[in-house]
Amino acid sequence: MKKNLTFFLTFVLSVFGIMASLNAQELKYCGTTEMQKKLLEQFPELLLQQQASDQILQENLAEYDGTRDDQIYIIPIVFHIIHNYGVEAISEDQVKDAVRILNEDFRKLNPDTVDIVEEFKDIAADSKIEFRLAQKTPGGGCTNGIDYIVSHETTQGDNGSKLSQWPRNMYLNVWVVNSITSFDGIDIAGYTVPPSAAEGFFATLDGIVILSNYLGSIGTGSVGTSHVLTHEIGHYLNLPHPWGSTNFPGVACGDDGIYDTPETQGWTVCDLDGSICNPGIIENVQNYMEYAYCDKMFTEGQATVMRGLLNTAVADRNNLWTTSNLEATGTNDGYVSACAPRADFNPNHYFICEDADVLFTDFSWNGDPTSWNWEFSGGTPVSSTEQNPTVIFNEPGKYTITLTSSNAIGSSTISKDIYVSSLSAQYVQYYYEGFDNATQFANDWITVNVDNNDSYWKLASNAGFSGTNSLVLTNFNGDKGDIDYAVTPALDLSGMPVTYASFRYAAASSTSDITLLDDVLSVYASTNCGETWTLHLTISGVSLINNGAWGDYFTPGSVSNNWSLGMLQLPSSLATSNVRFKFQYTGGSEGNNIYIDDVTVSEHPVGIEGLVNDASNLSIFPNPNNGDFTLTYNLPSERNVNISIVDFTGREVFALLNQLQSAGNHQQQIHSDDISSLGSGIYMVKIQAGVDSYINKLVIE
Ligand SMILES: [Zn+2]
Predict the structure, then answer these.
(1) I need a labelling partner for 604 at 20 to 30 A (CA). Which of 8, 71, 450, 671 fits?
(2) Which of 289, 320, 291, 275 is nearest to 125 (CA)?
(3) What digits encode the pLDDT tens for the residues 602-625?
């Protein structure tokens, strides 16, 4: 019996042990210390500034006499929801729930204070700090304190995601993102630049970055992780982790310098009897500044530190709660704003085939709309007053959709383009685009600047692999993670047993550090007019950056060593009647311009230059010419000879000769009258001599 009990206990303990470690693995933690370490590595001079600010804070804390002990400090707060219409675009209700939790936590109104362990019940503090959503923008405009910003930055939350910071002496800025860039392999739920570091130039970094699913307890949030923002605001108000500011928990015992938080090495598990550093002294596992995810309290000492900071000019914190600032931000007692909506919407497809449905979802914010006015000129219906209408577009083309959202206060309008494609392809089997004809490019290609910024695909007239033009993405001052794409016209590739897509590219970076080359060129294909895309080719690193580091705007010469060949053999799934290709560029941290030229689809695996072989055995004179030229070639033995002129895709455009010829040297005169159907341009002459083929470039002017 005893044996069985031991077994049972062991079993229970291991199950809980496994659960605890699984839990710890899945949960993400605060990245404040790691982020600060990284910032200091980047800007060593920050250390002196931080030490000076810390000195001020310590002196102030020593002098802080508590004369404002009954003062309730109200802090205006603004949430910038950085999103791309995904799950990270959390609801206003979820944000308001997060503010509710803050005000419970900082006022010790959280219902679970009854569960605080005996040792800390008496020192669990009402910090007398409150948070109110801003109701006035920095310019005095109307806001509900929740600012939705569409940006790729949501997928790589870091200091670069701190878009549209509102003045930090007026507002606490919180940026809500989909994911946060991990530091040193640590998955991060949120981080804060501490006030002593947020001075001078670094004032632009002041605020908190937090994951959308670690905010609030409803929607994508959860009760268990709903105090992460409380923890981060603790940092914002000058609280270190209880084990000090130098290490991740569990490494060594340390202290935060606050008199009533016991020495600890930090906790990622909720061991309420936890006592490691000083046997017999229970550690404050339930502290909001711990990592145990059973947090319920600040101590009186921590409240004093936070309130002390709010009485200093460090990081302008003493302006936040002033009467004049509360009035300026619309957070004074009794002020109630009602805002007009900011119109926005999200179609379920930006690319679609003719005769298909598009669902338009209202995404208006800042004020609840009571009416919607949609215009779908060319669609069915042509207009709608529904909130989320569905529309059919019967004709191919680019459609500009307009939404006006209104309520009793006012209205606003936004327009976006969607692209409807014909079911019949524009080109059959062979395709070549050299970007030398601007009109053809404008008619055939679609370029999309996802973030509507200064980096986007366009024609370049200053560089080309063949001809004088190419397609360029001006990415010299580009932003890491910025996505831009260019889409080919629809091609009918049905009946092509073996097909290759090829192109030339030339790219550079702004750095010679190859570990920083994180730009990516991806080639996708779609068989449903762009409604869905599959990835077929990815080029990155030194394979992509084939021209090294340039200190200025990169422009490739036309010599071939600046250009590489990108090529893919198409799977049989693309041998269908309507195929589009998409060239998508994702900007790197040290990007520069990239050029693409000679986009070719044919049965030949490479572009025109790759087809040229053994040119020494086939000479063309003169070359360039006006259509009159002489071919000279040598046959090693009697052969059946087939001479043709082919275009960039390798497709025959003119048959010159087909006959049996003897071994030895041959000359063949070609007259412009005979090939007058060919316009000026670049072609190839191809001689198929038995099993051998000789190919050379022909330029007709
Ligand atoms: Zn932290």
Answers:
(1) 671
(2) 289
(3) 887 765 556 666 666 788 899 889
| CA 521 to centroid of ligand 1, rounded, Å | 37
In angstroms, what is the span from residue 167 Cα to ligand 1's centroid? 23
Nearest to 399 by CA among 438, 362, 351: 351
Centre a 10 Å sphere on the Cβ of residue 59 and count the other Cβ atoms it contains. Answer: 11
Strands (DSSP E) along 272-426, which ranges? 345-347, 351-353, 356-362, 371-375, 383-384, 390-393, 397-406, 411-421
Could you tell me which of 590, 579, 470, 476 has the C-alpha nearest to residue 534? 579
Retrieve residue 428's tokens. Answer: 């059959």
Residue 52, pLDDT score: 83
Direct distance between the N- and C-terminal alpha carbons of the chain, in angstroms, rounded to an integer: 100
The residues, any chain, with a CB within 8 Å of residue 64's CB and separated by 6 or more, are 304, 307, 308, 311
Residue 96 Cα to ligand 1 middle (Å): 22
The length of the chain, given as a count of residues: 701
Instruction: Give distance in angstroms: CA of 231 to centre of ligand 1.
Output: 6
**Cα 210 to averaged position of ligand 1 atoms, centre (Å):** 11
Report the pLDDT value the prediction gives residue 275, as an integer from 0 to 100: 92
Which tokens go with 347? 């179609």
CA of 125 to the centre of ligand 1 (A): 19
ipTM for the predicted complex comes to 0.99
9 pLDDT band, cuts 50/70/90, is very low
58-94 per-position pLDDT tens digit: 777 766 655 567 899 999 999 999 999 999 999 999 9
Q: How far, in Å, from the CA of 168 to the mean position of ligand 1?
A: 20
Does residue 190 contact residue 229 with C-beta atoms inside 8 Å?
yes
291: CA distance to ligand 1 center in Å? 8
Structure tokens at 574: 């693309």
Please give the distance, rounded to the nearest whole angstrom, from the Cα atom of residue 87 to the centre of ligand 1.
Answer: 25
Residues in a beta bridge with 284:
none
115 alpha carbon to ligand 1 midpoint, in Å?
23
Handedness of CA 523, 524, 527, 530 (dihedral sign): negative
Q: For residue 324, how far is its CA from the centre of ligand 1 (angstroms)?
A: 31
Query: For 641-658, how does the pLDDT look when each residue is reduced to its tens digit (9 = 90+)?
Result: 999 998 877 778 889 889
105 CA from centroid of ligand 1 (Å): 16
Distance 30 CA to ligand 1 centre (A): 4
DSSP state of 214: G
Mean of pLDDT over the chain: 89
C-beta separation of 248 from 242 below 8 A: no
The tokens describing 88, both together, are 């990270």
pLDDT above 60: residue 4: no
Chain CA centroid to CA 105, Å: 33
Cα(260) to centroid of ligand 1, in Å? 18
Question: How far does residue 55's CA lie from ligand 1's centre (Å)?
Answer: 21
User: Ligand 1 centre and the CA of 288: distance in Å?
Assistant: 9
Beta 345-347 vs 520-526: how paired, if at all?
unpaired
Distance 189 CA to ligand 1 centre (A): 10
Distance CA 271, CA 268 (A): 9
- 446 CA → ligand 1 middle, Å: 46
Hey, what domains does the chain have and what are their CATH numbers?
9-328 (3.40.390.10), 345-421 (2.60.40.10), 430-606 (2.60.120.200), 612-700 (2.60.40.10)
Q: How many CB atoms lie within 10 A of CB 336?
A: 6
Do residues 308 and 319 lie in contact, with contact meaning Cβ atoms separated by under 8 Å? no
Do residues 686 and 643 make contact, with C-beta atoms less than 8 angstroms apart?
A: yes
In the sheet with 356-362, reading across from the earlier edge strand, the strands are 345-347, 356-362, 390-393
Instruction: Give CA 290 to chain center in angstroms.
Output: 31
What is the enclosing helix (H) or strand (E) of 539?
strand 534-540
Q: How far is the CA of 675 from the centre of ligand 1 (A)?
A: 76
